[in-house]
Amino acid sequence: MEPLSKGRRQRGAVLFVTLIVLVVLMLAGVAVVRSMETSSQIAANTAFRQATMQAADRAIVHALNKMPSLVNDSAGNTGVANLYLATRSTNKDDFDTRGIPKAINWANVSCTNDDGTNGNCAANNGDYRFQYVIERQCSSNPTLTDEVDVKKKCAYELTGGAVEVRYRVYIRAQGPRGTESFYEVMLGGAYN
Predict the structure, then answer these.
(1) Cα 32 from Cα 29, distance rounded (Å)
(2) Are 120 and 111 in contact (CB under 8 A)?
(3) Which positions, given as ranges, span the membrane (predicted)?
(4) Per-residue CA distances from 100 to 20, 43, 95 (Å)
């Protein structure tokens, strides 16, 4: 029996190295495909979250339409649970980590679908929903017929000579895939 020549041994080694390189390339290809899938999911989630801004815009319109009935006459000094806070809290312990007052129980706040119909914020059915709570920026209830007292107790701005009290609207917008965003908007309006 004749010993194997060097050429034959090298061809076996080349085959072994080639197989290892092919396995490494295949693993790299799988990693790239998985990375692209993850990137696509991140992009989709970001798009869903950005789309909640449109629901927040609708919430602002709803809040503007609702404000007159909440603040007209003496009603401005009366809070409405999970809709209108007549005074703002200044104690940092009264806020959650997002800066939302703990007095707001989102499970009890009215939910509206993006089309304006009543919604169910507990259900994730692929549509956009929003909730909002209006908070008057007053440290305590002012005498609404006394402009000086209103200026003393409330954040306000002068618009055309009229005093407009500031209101903060806390908005929770939800969308597909469990996306949830919180927004705050400052509005000015009549105090009585």
Answers:
(1) 5
(2) yes
(3) 12-33
(4) 57, 27, 5
How far is residue 132's CA from residue 88's CA, in Å, rounded to a whole number?
15
Inter-residue contact 115 to 129 (CB < 8 Å)? no
Domain containing 164 equals 45-189
Q: What is the pLDDT of residue 44?
A: 65
> How far is CA 14 from each of CA 8, 10, 20, 21, 124, rounded to the nearest angstrom?
10, 6, 10, 10, 57
Residue 96 resides in a domain? yes
pTM of the model: 0.73
Considering its fold, how many domains does the chain have in total?
1
Q: What integer best gives the mean pLDDT of the chain? A: 82
81 assigned to some structural domain: yes
